[in-house]
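Work Package 3 (structural annotation) set out to generate three-dimensional models for the target panel prioritized at the project kickoff. During this period the team completed the workflow that converts sequence records into discrete structure tokens, so that structures can be stored uniformly alongside our sequence database. As a representative example, we reproduce one entry of 371 residues exactly as it appears in the project archive.
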Amino acid sequence: MTRFKNERAEDLLVFLETVVENIPNMIFVKDADELRFVRFNRAGEELLGWKRETLIGKNDYDFFPKEEADWFTTKDRDVLNSQLLLDIPEEVIQTANGRRYLHTRKVPMLDADGRPAYLLGISEDITEKRVAEHELKRLNTELERSNTELTQFAYIASHDLQEPLRTISGYLQLLERRYKGRLDQDADEFIDFAVHGAKRLQAMIDGLLAFSRAGTRELTRTDVPLDALLDEVQAELAEAVKACDGLVLRGALPVVPGDPIQLGQVFRNLLTNALKFRGPNAPQVQITAARREDAWAISVSDNGIGIAPEDQERIFGVFRRLHGVDAYPGCGIGLAICKRIVERHGGTIEVSSRLGEGATFTIVLPDPPPA
């Protein structure tokens, strides 16, 4: 029986040894008195770049800079004194392979009398994850800085262009009123082109300013009843709807978190586009809402000219037009403003459409995070 028990114990030790050796994380054991290494696994050798024969019997001061060794030793003593698990989410360690970032857990190993005999440590190498997070943070910071600078540039440039453009436009209109019909036909045509171009440029600058403000204006977050908001938007567009014999139908709409002024601009732009890009029939617009897990999806559908699949991404770009200004007026910035506002609310805007069969724009606004 004793031999059988010994064989079972030996088998168990072999099994445990195999497990420890093949675990991908570094496992080490130190004695409780002098904190010298008494056990190291293969992953620990690979991580530190030192053979375990070199490590066994040594302590942290034999391998690491004093400041690091002091830190490791202090943490080890805290574990042994408290007899509690210590979780260190991130620690920096200098190895033979360079600097590494570890997630380490340390726990005391007690003897039969309940006193600490050893300290067990398990370390996961999180260097690649840490470097990736750092690079992502750097890229996000750079992108935020770039976007801020671009927005400021767009605002300053468009704002500073207003005055000279007004001067040019004013004198061109003066030329048109004073000399149209008094010069030859070419001169009249040239003046018409110049006046039209100045007006077009003015519209583009106004649109650029509106786009810039959509990204810089502070959001005032509150509960927004969409029924009341759409009442206001439809009242503003009542004449435009009447002029084209349009019809706007609405289902029950929810209360969503957001900035009422900017959300109002989104629906104003979408309704204006539905009236503008109409087909041969009188425009009909339907606004509905549905739940999507932890968000509201509000859809604005029309029976207009539709959008080809290959154009459904580019329409949200700044100054991206699918039609000439003679066919449909505007400067091609309304949907870019919608996208910017919705994304500032943490949401998304998407379109589903086929040419000649209308379009459905869906705004997804997430629920606010719990307080």
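The two ends are 64 Å apart (CA to CA).
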